[in-house]
Amino acid sequence: MASPRKTVLITGAAGYIGSHIALCCLLSGKYSVVTIDNFHNSFPTALERVTKIAQDALPAGASDEDKKALEIKCYRGDISIKSEIDQIFKDYEGKGGIWGVIHVAALKAVGESGEIPIKYYENNITATINLLDVMDKYKVYNLVYSSSATVYGAPPQCPIPESSPLQPESCYGRTKFMSELIIKDVCDSAPDKWRAISLRYFNPAGAHPSGQIGEDPRGRPGNLLPLLAQMAVGKFPEGLKIFGNDYDTPDGTCVRDYIHIMDLAEGHVLALAALPRDEIYAAQGQAAGFGSSGGKYKAYNLGKGKGMSVLNMVDAMQKASGFKYKTEIVGRRTGDVPELTADPALAEKELEFKAKRDLEAMCRDQWNWQSNNPKGYENQA
Ligand SMILES: NC(=O)c1ccc[n+]([C@@H]2O[C@H](COP(=O)([O-])OP(=O)(O)OC[C@H]3O[C@@H](n4cnc5c(N)ncnc54)[C@H](O)[C@@H]3O)[C@@H](O)[C@H]2O)c1
Fold first, then answer.
1. Could you tell me the distance, in angstroms and rounded to a whole number, from the CA of residue 105 to the centre of ligand 1?
2. What sequence ranges are listed for the domain NAD-dependent epimerase/dehydratase (predicted)?
3. Is 225 in the pocket of ligand 1 (CB under 6 A)?
4. Is 33 in the pocket of ligand 1 (CB under 6 A)?
5. Which of 99, 159, 244, 341 could form a disulfide with 332 if both were Cys (CB 3.0 to 4.6 A apart)?
6. How far is the CA of 19 from the centre of ligand 1 (A)?
């Protein structure tokens, strides 16, 4: 029997978040996956492992066709070059076409974005425009976009609702904000065609419980949990610098909303399912922080709605890994705000999204990935 799966193009599926999204799409039984990745910050091995995890989850006696449907077709290419995206849509025209796109690929380092802004605008904005243009050419009008809580900057209220003002403070944050704006304008231009959902991620962390896929950043991790995990396998022996312990938070260190990567990835499958539902767009109003719009565009926070301090995270990773962390309190870092947590109510109501996994599972899975792959994907194919 022919596979009833719809084809979804995931840009950047070899990366940390994209690989978990690809896995959840495959596990849902509803989608097959094609990706384009230039492996700027990832390894092809991740895609092979995603397929393996999905195939291992098939019931005994699954057919070769069922197994084949879980292979990820990968184009090694750069989405800032339009012809490289076009080729994919062209190839799929004769195979039932691409149903929708999850646009994940981007550069994401806040500090670096201020040093090489043109590269960030080219990679994150030009690429988004290219993608929209090619989608329009091939009449593919379903889009889920990887946005970030960084679009809120320093928000006036916490937990942060989607209607909070959008005032990103970094070049990276502006590329996410501008991409959202561009997508929204495109949706407004043709409400009878386009449907798009932006998902504003808070702090994704952890890994798939198999320990086969996880975050493998090149160089020093910019995020706290992978940094702690790498310290526990012997990297960065100088220990952790904690930037300020005199904030107005329960233990004085900064509080963030950490969400298990599998919860976050599952949110994308829910978003794909929600795209065709007209009612979610009806109450748009101020909900995306942009003011009212006539198009079918919606933004949702993906967070747990619960904050954890830096010290909470160190403590939890210490329990998971058994490693005794060396920490040092240093001065506050410019631009850090005491607390950033999501108000996830809208996603819970309209997408039926719920971040179920707790901090213990997040740290256990992070450690499982790191201890199984102390050098990440490299040399381990
Ligand atoms: N990780 C986080 O904490 C976080 C938080 C909020 C939002 N996001 C967003 O989520 C998305 C994924 O983040 P991630 O942590 O998985 O990053 P990642 O670097 O692990 O993954 C990004 C993937 O996109 C690829 N890529 C980048 N530019 C490309 C290009 N021009 N052409 C083709 N492929 C390209 C990379 O090689 C990589 O495989 C990004 O859009 C990021 O802005 C991430």
1. 4
2. 8-279
3. no
4. no
5. 244
6. 10
∠ CA 45-51-55, nearest 5°, is: 145
Helix extents (H) in the chain: 16-27, 45-56, 64-68, 82-93, 110-115, 117-121, 127-137, 171-189, 224-232, 261-274, 279-282, 310-321, 345-350, 359-372
Domain 6-211+258-305+343-355: CATH architecture, name and number where available: 3-Layer(aba) Sandwich (3.40)
> pLDDT of 191-229, one tens digit each?
999 999 999 999 999 999 999 999 998 888 989 999 999
Distance 11 CA to ligand 1 centre (A): 9
Sequence spans of domains, the chain: 6-211+258-305+343-355
Which pair of structure tokens corresponds to residue 4?
């009833």
pLDDT tens sequence across 221-257:
989 999 999 999 999 999 999 999 999 999 999 999 9
Ligand 1 pocket member 365 (CB < 6 A): no
Catalytic residue (choose from 172, 258, 281, 297): 172
Q: Is 78 in the pocket of ligand 1 (CB under 6 A)?
A: yes
